[in-house]
Amino acid sequence: MNANVLKLLLAGQYICPYRYRVEHDALEDEEEREAVDQWLSGINLRLARLGEEGAFFAAPAYIGQEEINRVKTELRRFRDEYGPAVLLLDFIRQTDVSRVQLSPGEHIALYELEAAVSQSSTLETQLKSLVSVISNAALRSTNRENLRRLLDHLERDGYVVLANKDSGTYQVTGKVEQLYAVLQFLGEHKVIPETEVDDREVAQEDLVDRAATEEGEAP
Amino acid sequence: MTERGDQVQRLLSSLAKHADLVAEAFEGSVSGGDKARNAAIESLFTQGVLKPYDEDTYRLNPRLREFMADHFASYHAFQALRRVTGTQQQAREQWEELRRLHAAGAVRDAVRLHAALEDSIVDVAYAIEHNLAMLHALIATQYGNVDDLSSKLRQNRYYARQVATFLKDVQNIDVFVEKVAEEALAAGLLEVRLLVTRRLGAKRLQWTSQIKDAQSVISKRLFEAKLMEQRLRLLSRFALWLTRNRTADGWDLAVEPEDSDALFRPEGLQLRPQPDVADTDPAAWDGLLEAVKKLPAPRAEPPAPKEPTGPQWLIEEDTPAFTEPADPQRAALEDLVEHLSVGAGWVSLLDWKAEREELAGVSDEAWLMFAGLQLKGSGFGVRFVETRSLDAYPINELFHDIEAQLQMAEAA
Question: How far is CA A217 from the centre of its chain?
């Protein structure tokens, strides 16, 4: 068994190929997974994944009232627990650099963010409004400094990892899928009233079906 | 070598002669330069290898480019899959004509038509194989011909449509194969029946299965793309909610054990290995000493705060004072001093000891050493009772007793 894998799992980390490549490669081996799972079962944990091919993490072996209460508390304190990540990642989405989809493995370059912000007063204003959310950011700092702190903040929270220090390029990690899973759960529970948002598409048809239909209609 | 074969050789040798220019043209367009280059372009242009594109700009013959692209599995973005319906239609017409010629007994023309039909059938099979190779190359490299993710997604959608059409084409081939095979059997053209069943019919199932595999991969990618779009939409909705509802913190929701594992974030268990101080292994011991060296020096203990001094009280207690138990040697010595003080003359210390039972446990040497020193220190006269020695030049003066008396001056 890889000792680092166990240490990371016990430390509550998400093991994805972008942040912990060696450890993730070790867990790709089925025998290693079984051994780790067996080891974790001794302390009432088990090896779990985010989705089918996402990051590995140590989940509780049994979901008891304590675990449920903890999640309920986190959802009740959504603004503090998940709010910063949601706001900062959404800011990056809005910059639309390299048509970023914020999926694991994607690269985010600091200079591209800076260019996007410098070309849009809306984004610049929005960045300033996030100063209270970004740790160590300040209104007197330059956009570049605040953007770097934004990415550093996300790095500390484990959502991105510094891929290239020289070019200031960060890479989205597998942990972001945990955030999406929480948002999905909240979305399914319709916590936000329909009247509050107007971003829904008229029809959500399956792309494959639509493609097939188009072909069917073609002469 | 036939004349036709000779021509092929000459064409290929010309291509080989100007291979650098052909390679350059495969990457893009080529333009004239020095005399030799212009001559080479002229030669390739004459043979139809290069086609004029703009003024003094030439591009590689598309058919030649296609051949090379197949060879290197290098495909343009959004490159369409080859349609086989046209060639299939051509083969159908050729078959109809071949059947008519065969019935009419025009053998020479029928042989020509058979060769043409064979080419068409091979072409259909080749087009299908090419499409499959291209699909697999694109899927395996995740549409490596573009870097932009959204462009990849659009290609994914595009190929989803292409594959659906491709599958229909291949299914139509089945109908064509069955029809030609039946008609060939009826017309007595067994070699044609063999041709279509062997070249097309036998491979159809394998092709269909490969296309469906590719389709499922593309569909999965499309689903992931759709999922990704949903995720970003969710992200933007919740960011908007957080911005609009600054006083709200979250929601009170029912969570069930069956809900997604992802909701239950792992808690970090802090681990800190402790050194085993009882481990006597040299390596462990050295490591421990190293660790201890790194520890900060112990801080000087601050002086204990003085208790406030208030008025002092003398407390007399009724408990009896502690009395030290009398030392028998000291008591015997005190008696001796008292005895000597009255001028008793020389008194042997050993005799004095022998008269006292309480000194029975004390050795003679210890008594003499103790009493002699005490008496001499107190000013009494002390003399050693020497032991007679037979040694002519004694180094040590030997004695076996000490006698003491009050000093003469004091006694006087």
Answer: 40
Query: CA nearest B74: which of B65, B82, B83?
Result: B65
CB of A52 within 8 Å of any CB in chain B? Answer: no
Tokens of B188: 């007595």
d(CA B136, CA B211): 10
The alpha helices in A11-133, defined as continuous H runs, are 21-27, 30-41, 65-76, 78-81, 83-95, 110-118, 121-129
Question: B235 and A93 in contact (C-beta within 8 Å)?
Answer: yes
Which 8-state DSSP code applies to residue A106? -
Cβ contact B200:B125 at 8 Å: yes
Size of interface A-B (CB pairs under 8 A): 167
Query: Using 50, 70 and 90 to split pLDDT, how confident is the model at B412?
Result: very low
Residue in B closest to A218 by C-alpha: B165
Task: Answer yes or no: is pLDDT of A52 > 60.
Answer: yes
Say yes or no for a CB contact (<8 Å) between A59 and B266.
yes
- For A97, the closest chain B residue by CA position comes to B148
CA distance B9 to B142: 39
Nearest residue on chain A to B166, judged by CA atoms?
Answer: A215
Gap from B89 CA to chain A (nearest CA, Å): 16
Element (H, E) at B400: strand B399-405
pLDDT tens-place string over residues B312-336: 777 766 666 666 677 888 888 888 8
Cβ separation A58–B244 shorter than 8 A: no
Distance from CA of A145 to the nearest CA of B (A): 22
For chain A, count helices (H), then strands (E).
Answer: 11, 5
> Mapping DSSP to helix (H, G, I), strand (E, B) and coil, where does residue B194 land?
helix
* Cβ-based contacts of A14 with chain B (< 8 Å): 266
Give B266→chain A minimum CA distance, Å: 5
Q: pTM value?
A: 0.51
Given a contact cutoff of 8 angstroms between Cβ atoms, the answer to whether A32 and B224 are in contact is no
For residue B226, the chain A residues in CB contact (below 8 A) are 206-207
At residue B125, what are phi and psi to the nearest 5 degrees? -65, -40
User: How far is CA B178 from each of CA A122, B100, B181, B192, rounded to the nearest angstrom?
Assistant: 65, 19, 5, 12
Q: What is each CA distance from B218 to B142, B153, B171, B215, B231, in whole angstroms?
A: 10, 10, 20, 5, 20
Q: Which residues pair with A56 in a beta bridge?
A: A15, A49
Whole-complex ipTM: 0.87
Which residue from A60, A79, A102 is facing B264, i.e. has the nearest CB? Answer: A60
Q: How far is A155 from chain B (nearest CA, A)?
A: 17
Chain A residue numbers with beta carbons less than 8 Å from the beta carbon of B273 are none
Chain center to CA of B178? 57
A58 three-class SS: strand
Q: How far apart are alpha carbons B168 and B321 in whole angstroms?
A: 121
Tell if the CB–CB gap between B228 and A101 is shorter than 8 Å.
yes
Quickly state the pLDDT bin for B224 (edges 50, 70, 90): low
Bridge partners of residue A46, in order along the sequence: A59
Minimum distance, in Å, between the CA of residue B241 and any CA atom of chain A: 8
- Rounded to whole angstroms, how far apart are CA atoms A140 and A34? 53
Please list every residue in chain B whose beta carbon sits closer than 8 Å to the beta carbon of residue A214.
161
Residues in chain B: 412
Residues from chain B contacting residue A74 (CB–CB below 8 Å):
250, 265
Is A139 strand, coil or helix?
coil
A63 Cβ under 8 Å from any chain B Cβ:
yes
Per-residue buried b or exposed e for B334-363, using 16+ beta carbons within 10 Å of the residue's own CB: eebbeebeeeeeebebbebbeebeebeebe
